[in-house]
Amino acid sequence: MKRRLARAFNIEDLRKLAKRRLPHVVFDYIDGAADAEWTVKENARAFEDLVFRPRSAVASAPVNLATSVLSTDINLPIILAPVGSSRMFYPRGECAASEVAGEFGTIYTLSTLSGCRMEDVKAATRGRAWYQLYLLGGRQVAERAIARAKAAGYAALVVTIDTPVAGLRERDLRGGASELIGGNLLAMLPHVGQVLAKPAWLAAFLGDGGMMKFPNVLLDSGEPMPYADIGSALAASAVSWSDFAWIKSAWGGPIVAKGVHTADDARNAVAHGADAVVVSNHGGRQLDGVAGTISVLPEVVDAVGDRVEVLLDGGIRRGADVVKALCLGARAVLIGRAYAYGLAAGGKDGVERALQILRNDVVRTMNLLGVHDVRDLDRELVRKIR
Q1: 318 falls in which pLDDT band (50, 70, 90)?
Q2: If you placed Cys at 274, which of 54, 257, 260, 283 could pair as Cys (CB 3.0 to 4.6 Å)?
Q3: 2-384 has which fold?
Q4: DSSP symbol at 336
Q5: 24 a catalytic residue
Q6: Per DSSP, what are the bridge partners of residue 51?
Q7: Domain segments of the chain as ranges
Q8: pLDDT score at 255
Q9: Structure pTM?
Q10: Annotated catalytic residue, options 24, 272, 282, 372
Q11: CB count in 10 Å sphere of residue 372
């Protein structure tokens, strides 16, 4: 496996390996997006509208990638974003990814929609971890999850604000996702062939417990929320700005608002107590037809000034993308698909390879740009051409 991963020279190579290993319904869960999937493509394409303005004849020096986010020192300006259902990609997927994040000296963000207990995921990393919060099951259920995250040692709470309902992910519908998780044998039959065609994945999935529940969403009955209930639960658990007061009171630590896409929402996040904001459109999985996140990053940075830190999520496929985001004012970036492809392709080794690829890309890009410290990246080093 390591030999195969070593031949992956970019994130697209990892994507191809993941596609070969997974049933297409699981691969499409990682790879797909909402409606026509215009926004997920635009997230990546929009980086092409920015070109570098390199400084030549600069003496060589070691590149320093260290920065800080919410007073936490990290060795790499790349944070692992919350990716739900990672246990479907590889056994104990969330634990594997968090372990790698710690080895690279960066932060892992655990999704509410995790198949692993938050305590186990935090124990797997020697670095910092954040917990991403959905209000699934209502306020009391969320408060129990917040208390567990605090007791487990999570350093920040990431509140996702762009999911009033789940987006229309057509690939999931075509692939039979709801039928495969619904438990109705007759409905499953037309789709089960794709699972049987991947025996190695199926054996690993069944060996890890098979169809998962969400152990971090403990309902009033004390039972974890079943996977099949997620669609209706999301629709009943939308976050509003008024929720930030009780969330912040229950948590008592740093709050990150994820899903900010306009200057107005950035200012609202600051006004309601957010300590950082993530410019994000949920990887194109919610509202299709919105701008790529790198396009709106300057608007958000200008709106909040130095009052809170700004992070960027969406479309990161190469180290050059990371550098462009830092030039435009992001403190760090979050990656989701980039490491999920690696996880699906090779578990812990695949996540390591994804981060190695991106780290090497960033170092090479900065050397060619003539800048040797991420703290020296600024808008003078990029220009918008479209």
Answers
A1: very high
A2: 257
A3: TIM Barrel (3.20.20)
A4: S
A5: no
A6: 383
A7: 2-384
A8: 98
A9: 0.96
A10: 282
A11: 17
